[in-house]
């Protein structure tokens, strides 16, 4: 197992540009070294800090992307503009408190010129995703909700769970905002309309049927026990069910049941009767929002003293199927910019994009967004502001949810006011920790080794930041190799680690983590801790906090807020790892009945 080497960014003006846009983006044009006006401070130079007004004076009247940085070259905010000078100059006229705080930290302003506004919009999205600046919209893990895929390019199509939409000959159903509901739907369909479950695209001829067939979960097309015509009819029933055409499905099942009974095919009639009853039951539970079978997403945004929030309501075939929620503590953007940034980030990279997005107000970049989304989808996409009817009712529902989300509890004030400062002072941390991550490597006897990562943000669990890893290291249990693998994969998803990393273990685990963290750039290194039981004289089996460069652990009183918080993080990481163990073991056991 190799751990990636990390190189510090070179500042603009050296051999390599500090930033490179994603493939397919326009070539960057950074500061002009021949222009005496374009001479901003370089790292290490003892020069007066320029005012924001001075920095703006160097900007051209040209489309592009601007990057606001602090004195340590850290990117604070990334924005795009049709006219860089006009857009950035507008910050000087505003009196918004969040903007004033942001500008007070800006000591350097870089820009990248693009050919037009559309390229600026795409490049901005790429750079935000890469660098995740503090004052930009950050979707944290960029979570993708699961969908069900039915591959029509296969002779005998099967249902599978995916999180990325491809441009292929397949039908996709979803997204499901709850993975539990999606699994329940899939299990229900496997009982009601069994399709093959083997993963091969080309179906091999088998000498004997699988266990799924023996338990009634597979029609065994591999043995020729079902004709292609009958199998395709079953596929059509699955599609009708998932598309919400259940009343049509009930009529068809009833017709086929009566036909089978008249022809004395009583066993087939009994199977159809059971399916008919099951589908009829789901109709009683279904809440139809619309009489029209439409697919669309409804976006609502709200601002307040507690930050900002955005909600996306999923409407599939006329029914609300789920909700995606996003909260932002201190975005520098207003409502319009925030919504534009979120649309770009959320729908990129394989998400399902419906043909219509309902938005709460017109956007200046609306034509550009429609063009970009249409290219992603491979078909027309429209952004609309609802004026009447069902669209207006859906928007009201989304706005009610976003206001409710904005009023939810924010940070844990006791943690911010008491525990976080105590953590810093008691353990000698480099800064007051706002984010704390917990790592656990679990290797139960006879089971698959797994790793877990949990994230606490401002004292509360941030479930969006949780990650679990199936260890790929195939050699004998090797703590260093397993920890290195988890760290490598974690860093590929989190360009910026939390302020503190806590590992479940003692001095040995801490030394492994220390060795790995020391290979990060200095500005990206978190403080590291370990927590484990320690037996010392008459202290008994108490949790001790292990620190780098310290031989013995720190033993705090059992009621110490610092110890209680770290135990909470450690226990949550351990619980998350164990739950993954149980899930993997459950998958290894073929269910005989459900």
Note the topology.
Layout: H1 52-56, E1 64-69, E2 75-81, H2 84-89, H3 97-105, E3 108-113, H4 117-131, E4 147-151, E5 159-162, E6 170-173, H5 179-192, H6 211-214, H7 228-242, H8 246-262, H9 266-285, E7 296-304, E8 307-316, E9 319-328, H10 335-347, E10 356-358, H11 366-377, E11 382-384, H12 389-406, H13 413-427, E12 435-442, E13 450-457, E14 460-461, E15 467-470, H14 479-493, E16 500-504, H15 507-517, E17 527-535, E18 541-546, H16 561-588
Parallel strand pairs: 7-10, 10-11, 12-16, 16-17
Antiparallel strand pairs: 1-2, 1-3, 4-5, 4-6, 7-8, 8-9, 12-13, 13-14, 13-15, 17-18
> How many helix segments?
16
CATH top-level class of the largest domain: Alpha Beta
The count of domains is 4
Q: Supply the CATH superfamily name of the largest domain.
A: UvrC, RNAse H endonuclease domain
Shape: globular
**Share in helix:** 25-40%
Measured distance between first and last alpha carbons: 40 Å
Q: What is the fold named in CATH at topology level of the largest domain?
A: Nucleotidyltransferase, domain 5
Mean pLDDT: 78
Describe this structure in words.
The chain folds into four domains: 126 residues, GIY-YIG endonuclease; 139 residues, no CATH class; 80 residues, no CATH class; 176 residues, Nucleotidyltransferase, domain 5 (2-Layer Sandwich), CATH 3.30.420. The chain is 37% helix and 18% strand. The protein contains 16 helices and 18 strands. β13 and β14 form a beta hairpin. α8 packs antiparallel against α9 and α14 packs across α15.
């Amino acid at each position: 197992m190799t751990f990636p080497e990390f190189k510090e960014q070179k500042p603009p003006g050296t051999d390599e540009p500090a930033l490179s846009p994603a493939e397919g983006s326009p070539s960057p044009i950074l500061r002009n070294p021949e222009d005496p006006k374009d001479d901003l401070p370089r790292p290490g130079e003892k020069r007066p800090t320029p005012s924001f007004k001075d920095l703006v004076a160097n900007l051209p009247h040209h489309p592009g992307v601007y990057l606001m940085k602090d004195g340590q070259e850290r990117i604070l905010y990334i924005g795009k503009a049709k006219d860089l000078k006009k857009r950035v100059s507008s910050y000087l006229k505003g009196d918004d408190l969040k903007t004033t705080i942001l500008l007070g930290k800006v000591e350097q302003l870089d820009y990248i010129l693009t050919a037009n506004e559309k390229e600026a919009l795409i490049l901005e999205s790429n750079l935000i995703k890469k660098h995740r600046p503090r004052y930009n919209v950050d979707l944290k893990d960029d979570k993708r909700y699961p969908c069900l895929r039915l591959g029509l390019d296969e002779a005998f199509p099967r249902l599978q769970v995916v999180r990325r939409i491809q441009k292929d000959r397949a039908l996709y159903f979803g997204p499901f905002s709850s993975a539990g509901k999606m699994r329940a739907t899939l299990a229900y369909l496997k009982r009601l309309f069994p399709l093959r479950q083997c993963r091969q695209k080309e179906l091999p001829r088998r000498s004997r049927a699988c266990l799924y067939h023996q338990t009634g979960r597979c029609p065994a097309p591999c043995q020729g026990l079902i004709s292609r015509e009958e199998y395709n009819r079953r596929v059509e029933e699955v599609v009708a069910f998932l598309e919400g055409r259940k009343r049509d499905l009930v009529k068809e099942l009833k017709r086929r049941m009566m036909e089978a009974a008249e022809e004395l095919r009583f066993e087939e009639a009994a199977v159809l009767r059971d399916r008919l009853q099951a589908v009829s039951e789901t109709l009683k539970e279904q809440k139809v929002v619309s009489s029209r079978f439409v697919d669309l997403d409804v976006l609502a945004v709200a601002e307040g003293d507690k930050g900002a929030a955005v909600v996306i309501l999923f409407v599939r075939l006329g029914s609300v199927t789920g909700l995606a929620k996003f909260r932002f503590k201190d975005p520098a953007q207003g409502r319009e910019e925030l919504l534009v940034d979120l649309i770009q980030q959320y729908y990129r990279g394989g998400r399902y994009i419906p043909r219509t997005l309902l938005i709460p107000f017109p956007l200046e970049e609306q034509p550009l967004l429609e063009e970009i989304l249409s290219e992603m989808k491979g078909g027309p996409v429209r952004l609309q502001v609802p004026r009447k009817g069902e669209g207006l009712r859906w928007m009201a529902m989304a706005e009610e949810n976003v206001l409710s989300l904005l009023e939810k509890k924010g940070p844990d004030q006791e943690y911010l006011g008491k525990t976080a400062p105590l953590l810093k002072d008691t353990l000698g941390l480099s800064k007051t920790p706002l984010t704390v991550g917990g790592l656990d490597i679990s290797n139960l006897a006879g089971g698959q080794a797994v790793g877990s990562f949990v994230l606490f943000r401002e004292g509360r669990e941030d479930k969006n930041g949780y990650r679990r890893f199936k260890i790929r290291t195939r050699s004998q249990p090797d703590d260093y190799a397993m920890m290195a693998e988890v760290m490598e994969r974690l860093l590929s998803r989190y360009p910026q680690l939390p302020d503190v990393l806590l590992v479940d273990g003692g001095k040995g685990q801490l030394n492994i983590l220390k060795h790995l963290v020391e290979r990060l750039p200095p500005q990206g290194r978190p403080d590291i801790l370990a927590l484990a039981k320690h037996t010392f004289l008459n202290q008994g089996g108490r949790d001790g906090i292990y620190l780098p460069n310290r031989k013995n652990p720190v033993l705090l009183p059992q009621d110490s807020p610092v110890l209680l918080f770290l135990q909470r993080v450690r226990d949550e990481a351990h619980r998350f790892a164990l739950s993954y163990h149980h899930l993997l073991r459950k998958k290894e056991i073929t269910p005989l009945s459900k």
